[in-house]
UniProtKB/TrEMBL annotation:
It comes from Kribbella kalugense. GO terms for molecular function: ABC-type oligopeptide transporter activity; ATP binding; ATP hydrolysis activity. InterPro entries: AAA+_ATPase, ABC1_TM_dom, ABC1_TM_sf, ABC_transporter-like_ATP-bd, ABC_transporter-like_CS, P-loop_NTPase, Type_1_exporter. Residues 22-304 form the ABC transmembrane type-1 domain. GO terms for cellular component: plasma membrane. Pfam families: ABC_membrane (PF00664), ABC_tran (PF00005). The chain crosses the membrane at residues 20-42, 62-85. This is ATP-binding cassette subfamily B protein.
Length: 567
């Protein structure tokens, strides 16, 4: 991606803030004008006060110089503060934009990308793009204006000396051009290595018990060291190139200063120039080189930022797997009839289908246990019902209407999923229970917790419902009951539970039976499990065969009495 493409990709996000950038540019220009006036006053002071030794000639230009310096300082302060503020605003907006997009992406996207790398893209890469889109853009305007202003003043003072100075500019550009390619390469490697380091740290800290129990400390350290080595090589090589560039520029500048002084001495000896004019000219040179140099450096910064741009653009180009229809069907009074009609599904990029020709109808209020061998597609059925994906063939319907006819948000308001993993937040117990219904009253939260048999252990915690949850302070069964309370509070007509007893010992699994039945009461419930002891509570058991199609297990009086035997 070129700088121009990278800039064009993210510039539209600055809409609404551009007036602030214009104001920053105005401040930068005003500050440069103040500097120019100050330098001219310095020349005047040299010729009229210093050379003549006249104190009377000192006061007037000195007062004016001080006034201009104070004005320049105020404008500089306002401009720089505003530039910083608007840059950070852009970072915030860009991060929110990418984060909003990431939240709509399907589960397989998160399986393909390491979480640490995504975190790095949302933090470091976002800031690098700010450098390109806001700071560099303002920097270019500022540098160009200063160059024009100081050049005009230098030409006005002494045009032949100015020509010597300008002869150097193409050399500076050439140097920047030579160094751009390698610096960009190293910047890209550094960004990738940053992501890899965050991933290793995140994975390693997440599995710390496994690491300790299996004595894998040295292996984990080697893993981090490998990524850190790649990062260090890229970082040091990039810094070396940048430093070399700086030094080359220094030498070029010295060359030019010597040329100017030599020529200036000759001009003074010929009586064509005063000492004040030469000193002013040298001061303009001092002011002219930083913006000239910063143009080259901005090119390098922007080049380095394109690596970050590519990484964020990759996220933004990943499309959500489902979208809302143009005219969504309104969902009111959902009864909860769920139908899978000849459903086939292929995960993006997978070689074999996860489901083929799957049929299942669950009547409103029915409690169905879904079982079958591992990998047969049970969790996939839950994902299709929540519309994380649309089926590749066939249809999933709710109350007879295809799921794709509903707005995704509204559909998910009617279905509650309890995923296999017990997901809790580091927040209060109250906030955890009310996660699916933040507007619930305290009474409703307590009521849900009571029905889920969670109230009994919550009230023994030091601060009851206000205790900030640390998952290690509760048992697996208690955490599960907490998520049941969360689901109860949502009170949706359809409920999907994915392996609620997975990871629980027999005693904990037994503890969740009563809350589970409370949860399933009066709503369409699909319970995915390998644990056939749960089958006795269901109206029906559906066993998925290896081909992915469903078959109803025999029922006795509407209730399966010995599920294990029948299956
Ligand atoms: N994101 C994915 N990309 C590609 N293939 C996938 C993805 N997720 C699941 N699969 C595959 O789809 C098939 C069905 O997976 P699914 O998780 O639905 O099975 P399951 O019956 O729930 O298994 P288990 O009982 O072990 O949880 C499996 O072969 C699995 O490897």
């Amino acid at each position: 991606m070129t700088i121009r493409q990278a800039f064009a990709r993210f510039w539209p996000l600055t809409r609404g803030d551009r007036r602030w950038y214009v104001l920053v540019c105005v401040c930068v220009i005003a500050a440069a004008v103040c500097e120019t006036v100050a330098i001219l006053l310095f020349g005047h002071l040299t010729d009229h006060a210093l050379e003549q030794g006249s104190l009377a000639a000192f006061w007037h230009p000195a007062t004016a110089w001080l006034g201009v310096a104070i004005l320049g300082a105020i404008i500089g302060y306002l401009g720089n503060s505003l530039a910083f503020w608007s840059g950070e605003r852009f970072v915030r907006r860009l991060r929110a934009h990418v984060f909003g997009h990431v939240q709509e992406l399907p589960p397989d996207f998160f399986q393909r990308h390491r979480r640490g790398d995504l975190v790095e893209r949302l933090s470091g890469d976002v800031e690098a793009i700010e450098q390109l889109v806001v700071s560099s853009a303002i920097g270019v305007v500022s540098a160009v204006f200063r160059i024009v202003l100081f050049s005009a003043a230098a030409i006005w003072l002494c045009w032949d000396l100015a020509l010597v100075t300008f002869a150097l500019a193409p050399l500076l550009w050439l140097a920047a051009k030579i160094f751009t390619g390698p610096i960009r390469r190293f910047a890209r490697s550094e960004r990738v290595a940053d992501g890899a380091i965050t991933s290793v740290l995140e994975e390693s800290l997440g599995t710390i018990e496994l690491t300790q129990a299996y004595n894998r400390k040295p292996a984990e350290e080697t893993r981090l060291d490998r990524e850190a080595g790649a990062w260090m090589r890229a970082s040091v090589s990039g810094a070396r190139r940048s430093e070399l560039y700086e030094q080359v520029v220094e030498v070029l500048e010295t060359l030019c200063v010597l040329g100017v002084i030599g020529l200036g001495v000759w001009e003074i000896s010929q009586g064509r120039m005063t000492l004040g004019a030469l000193l002013s000219f040298a001061a303009f040179l001092g002011y002219l080189y930083p913006p000239l140099r910063s143009l080259g450096e901005l090119n390098l910064t922007a080049t380095a930022a394109t690596a970050a741009t590519e990484r964020l653009a990759e996220i933004l180009s990943a499309a959500p797997s489902v979208t809302d229809p143009e005219h969504p069907v309104e969902l009111e009074h959902v009864r909860g009839r769920v139908e899978f009609d000849r459903v086939g599904f292929h995960y993006p990029g997978a070689g074999t289908p996860a489901l083929t020709g799957f049929d299942l109808t669950v009547e409103p209020g029915e409690f169905v246990v879904l079982t079958g061998p591992s990998g047969v597609g049970k969790s996939t059925i839950a994902k299709l019902l929540l519309r994380f994906y649309d089926p590749t063939s066939g249809q999933v319907r709710l109350d007879g209407v295809p799921l794709s006819s509903f707005a995704v948000r509204r559909l998910r308001e009617s279905i509650t999923l309890l995923p296999q993993q017990t997901l809790v937040l580091r927040d209060t117990i109250r906030a955890n229970v009310a996660y699916g219904r933040p507007d619930a009253t305290d009474e409703e939260v307590v009521e849900a917790a009571r029905s889920a048999a969670a109230d009994e252990f919550i009230t023994t915690l030091p601060e009851g419902y206000d205790t900030v949850l640390d998952p290690s302070m509760l048992s697996g069964g208690q955490l599960k009951r907490l998520t049941f309370a969360r689901a109860l509070l949502r009170d949706t007509p359809v409920l999907v539970l994915d392996e609620p007893t997975a990871g629980l010992d027999a005693a904990s699994a037994h503890q969740i039976i009563t809350p589970l039945r409370a949860l399933a009461r009066n709503r369409t419930t699909i319970l995915i499990t390998h644990d056939l002891s749960l089958a006795q509570y269901a109206d029906r058991v559906v066993a998925l065969s290896g081909t992915g199609s469903g078959s109803d297990a025999p029922r006795v009086g509407g209730r399966l009495l010995s599920a294990a035997r029948e299956l």
